[in-house]
Amino acid sequence: AQKITQTQPGMFVQEKEAVTLDCTYDTSDQSYGLFWYKQPSSGEMIFLIYQGSYDEQNATEGRYSLNFQKARKSANLVISASQLGDSAMYFCAMREGLLNTDKLIFGTGTRLQVFP
Amino acid sequence: EADIYQTPRYLVIGTGKKITLECSQTMGHDKMYWYQQDPGMELHLIHYSYGVNSTEKGDLSSESTVSRIRTEHFPLTLESARPSHTSQYLCASSEEGQWSYGYTFGSGTRLTVV
Asked: Which residue of A37, A102, A105, A111 is the best one to mutate when testing the B interface, meaning the one whose CB has the most B CBs within 10 A?
């Protein structure tokens, strides 16, 4: 069974608007971490934001925020005030806890395109 | 400034050649990983290591092999390259117990086998 699901292969957003990228996950662990990475066309993976399973507040990092709904097992990324430089692939990932080996598992990604 | 380095950045090589993709990190991380990624697709874990002389195969079967003789160095070798090996290979490392930092990734090696 797929552990990380990103249902949006591609998204378009106008510059300065907000956009939400969806991510749902599946785990039986109580302790886990959720991550979002950005991958520009150059190929490197850039860490954006982290949410721990025990964190009560949604994580925020500048223009990035993570809408964490534990009961629904969703961890959506919200980008506010989109910029042209935000155009890239975005990957949601999960790192499971004590019951599993320490591996980062990725979703299939969402390609975001920001237009003027 | 990158703390994890991958070389070469791009490689075009003929079928049947032996290649080694280099990965080095200067952060003293015990845990290192190799991911394979086709263009625009998800990342698949092919190898990982939790320390010197420790290597394990990942979730995606791969014909490549790895070694971990030194903490900072985690090279990946293909004994006989084939066109099916054409892909991007990303190396990463992480620090024990520091979950919130995620993985630090190298810039990747884009391999093309002709």
From this structure: A102
CA angle A54–A64–A81, rounded 5-degree value = 155
Backbone angles phi, psi at A86, to 5 degrees: -80, -10
Query: In this predicted structure, what is the pLDDT of residue A28?
Result: 86
Q: Which residues of chain A have pLDDT under 70?
A: 1-2, 97-101
Q: Are A8 and A24 in contact (CB under 8 A)?
A: no
- Do the Cβ atoms of B76 and A24 come closer than 8 Å? no
Distance of residue B79 Cα from the nearest chain A Cα, in angstroms: 25
For residue B84, the tally of other CB atoms under 10 A from its CB is 9
Q: Is the pLDDT assigned to residue B1 strictly greater than 70?
A: no
pLDDT of residue B62: 86
Whether residue A33 contacts residue A52, with contact meaning beta carbons closer than 8 Å, is answered with yes
Q: Check: CB of residue B25 under 8 Å from CB of residue B5.
A: yes
- Give CA–CA dist B30/B46, Å, rounded: 17
Contact flag B110-A43 (C-beta cutoff 8 Å): yes
Q: Rounded to an integer, what distance in angstroms lies between the CA atom of residue B95 and that of residue A2?
A: 26
Q: Mean pLDDT score of chain A, rounded to an integer?
A: 92
Please state the length of chain B: 114
User: In terms of C-beta density within 10 A (0-12 exposed, 13-18 middle, 19 or more buried), how is residue B41 classed?
Assistant: middle
Is B114 within 8 Å of B13 (Cβ atoms)?
Answer: yes
